[in-house]
Amino acid sequence: MIGIVLWSDKSAGKAIIWCEDQGDLAYYCEANDRLRIPVSKGDWVQFDLAEEGNLRLAGNARVLDGKTYPDLSEMLIEAGAIQKGAAGVESRPAGASNVIPFPNPSNRRKSVRYG
């Protein structure tokens, strides 16, 4: 699996990774990883994914490119706030998806072709 580190605590050796499959976030603990690779917020990483109960755990992490997207978590928070404001929705119903939806294409202006 490939993902971007959204949050990390270097002193604790822990991180939260946004996965390429857009599923639940993966949790990384350097102490539990046989390679013990430190990761930082914004790193583009490749890792093995295991599921234990309702957790997705990242292991055997390898940094593909360091600090590629250091501001991604802030960008996602901002995009969520914009989306929430545009929809006029205050909170997400229980059991709803945690994926930020794209705007409805029918709400966009249609391009007009001349000639």
Give an overview in words.
The chain has a domain at 2-65: Nucleic acid-binding proteins (OB fold (Dihydrolipoamide Acetyltransferase, E2P)). The N and C termini lie far apart (48 Å). Helix content is 14%, strand content 33%. With 115 residues, it is α+β, with helices and mostly antiparallel strands. The model is unreliable at 108-115 (pLDDT under 50). It has one helix at 72-87, and strands at 2-9, 14-19, 26-29, 44-52, 55-65. The chain has 1 helix and 5 strands. It has a 5-stranded mixed beta barrel with strand order 1-2-3-5-4.
Cross-sheet strand order for the largest sheet: 1-2-3-5-4
Q: Give the overall shape.
A: globular
Helix percent reads: 10-25%
Order of helices and strands: EEEEEH
The CATH class label of the domain at 2-65 is: Mainly Beta
The poorly predicted ranges are 108-115
CATH T-level fold name of the domain at 2-65? OB fold (Dihydrolipoamide Acetyltransferase, E2P)
Integer-rounded radius of gyration: 18 Å
| Overall average pLDDT | 81
CATH architecture of the domain at 2-65: Beta Barrel
Tally of DSSP helical segments: 1
What is the straight-line distance between the termini? 48 Å
Going by helix content, strand content and strand pairing, the class is alpha+beta
Strand content: 25-35%
CATH superfamily of the domain at 2-65: Nucleic acid-binding proteins
Summarize the biggest pleated sheet: 5 strands, mixed, barrel
Count of extended strands: 5
